[in-house]
Amino acid sequence: ILDFGFDRLGADQSQINHPVLITECACNPVQSRSKMAELLFESYGVPSVAFGVDAAFSYKYNQQLGICSNDGLAICSGFNTSHVIPFLNGEPVYDACCRTNVGGYHVTDYLKQLLSLKYPHHMSKLTWEKVEDLKMEHCYIAPDYAAEVRLFQKGDKKAEEKTRCWQLPWTPSPMEEAPSEEEIARKAALKEKQGQRLREMAEAKRSNRINDLENEIRDLEMLLQRLRHATENDIPLILAKTVYISKHDVESALAKATQSLRKAKGEPVESVEKMDPSSTEKYNLINVPDEMLTPEQLKQKRKQLFIKSTSEARQLKKQKQVEEELERERQRKLEEERRLENPERYLEELHAKHRDLSEKVEQRKKLKTNGGHTNGNHNASGGVGRGERLNPSQRERMRLLTTAAFDRGKGEDTFGAKDEDWQLYKLMSKDNDDDDDDKPDPDEAELARISSRLQEIDPTFIFKSESGSSSAEPPRFRPLTKEDFQIILGVERFRCPEILFNPNLIGIDQAGLDEMAGISIRRLPSKGQGLEEKITSSILLIGGSCLFPGMSERLEAGIRMTRPCGTPIKIYEASDPILDAWRGASTYAAAMQFPQQTFSRMDYYEKGEDWLRSYELRASIDETVDTIAAALHI
Amino acid sequence: MEPEVVEAELVLPTHMKFKKIQMYEKYPKGQARVRWKHLKQIIQAENYQNYPPDVPNYVNIESPPSMRPCKRICDVTGYEAPYFDPRTKLRYANAEVFKVIRSLPNDYVQRYLALRNAAVVLR
Fold first, then answer.
1. Strand pairing category for A571-573 and A539-542
2. Which B-chain residues 37-56 have CB contacts (< 8 A) with chain A?
């Protein structure tokens, strides 16, 4: 910062040849002072330095402007801290000054946190600078927090007026227009063409396959013929050239090839007919009683039994499915008829069913999440513990556990010694899982079915999603509207600056601004009734954070609470709260007596850093000689 | 930011004539940047106990805890909150807010508590 300042001021010599006046906070630690002095002297070569409290400069400046008098109170709320400093005879009384570690930074931070918690999906827009702008533009201090909040709670019209709405830039998602006639026709034509192409490809493949098969069959037939004509001895020779092992193989291959050819050509496959005679063949062994068969045949018989039972089971299942389909069709037809004859009543019934089911599902979900929560939180309270066990599956689980633990008894726990003991857990968790998974499913499926029906029929029905998602996720099934991109500042407008008066809201255990004024006056070393009145009748507000509208009324009300009845309280605002300190400092430095107030480099080298501890700037510079002597009081 | 600040170029020349020790000499590339001392360290180094207590110093002038009764407001909405949720330790104003609180995921709860400086800090 110093570099920047000096550079912009046009310093271009080898060192800065001007004395420097630096503002600091009240009762600055010596370390900071010494570091700053060291920096200035060593790095910049400044001849002399002076430190002064910014609030004092501001007060002096305003005093010169005639805003406040010689005795008064300065309430300075800055960025990180807020100070209250009383002034007596123009001098700040540091013994009685008071500091709270709450400032504009905390207000902005509070606002930022609140907004990001309320609107998590806009977190990227809520930068620090933006929030600070928001704070400066929209925040105000309510004269009475409780009353304001009650207005908002009741939803009063005044509250509506006070709510401000920040619209973020937002582009509406492009709506899908209903495809026009030409669109539909074009799409249909495309589909047709694609279908055509696929069909052609299939055709080509099929004809290829048929050709191959035919070739294969011809070869096989030729081979067979040769085999037939050949003698016994030649058969192995001929066969060795081909893949087949014996004549039987060749014949079976031929049969298979002809069959597939027939299938490819689209003739009814004879396999179905073949199944029946082959089935009788296959199962021929079953009917033969056991004693008459050889062991090999027994094995075959067992195989055949197995095959038969499985195929029968499959057939039964198929039948059942067909029946169910028919049943469902029938029901649907019935419903349709019912709907057509009395649409309203049907709709009502459907709505009622939907409502019941949704309630049931919600309740079960609540039970589940409640159980989950208590499981996770190790809650020791008895009432909640009981709620955990109410679920019948959980009860079963507890019963199993306690019986298992009890069985072993007699002081020794030998639960895990035998392997069978662990089967207990299999029982338990199965129960739990079954309960959790099976029960909701049919209900939820039913719910989904009903809601889809309702959506089809009733244009005004809005399906409320049962996802139970936290407030963090907006429901995704409807397109994002304009409202989603609005950030509404209602209560936050006056909730955030409230922390200046009530740091408890943030967790900082200190007094607020109005209380601080009382504390500061209390700490004054010299008391006197008239003095306090004089002080309270000239209270100056300085610092950036006092620019909130409504600050002075609130302060006045607050200070009146702590002071005896009837004291005059006048609160003045500085002419320029932010820059007044600098203006005051500049007028101070321009005065003739300024050089005596500084300490020079020689002093610094001789006396060292510790001397800085007792260095204090005298705020008011008079022309008299005494003050010059008493200027640097050590 | 004030418009003047934004318009001004914020880039400084590297060599300042008036500085005896330039920035690049102090911090050659690759070395650690300067570490500022924290406020706590500064205060500790001050040894304020050694000095008489009536002389004002940085620690002396801090304001004491507030005498007024604590104002209880709802953590979520900011309304007046007479109720307190034992499970999440949040304050709430009415039943709808309670529903919202119970449906919050855990890190949101911690963040609301952190606003009030009441979060559980695990180090």
1. parallel
2. 37, 42-43, 45-46, 54, 56
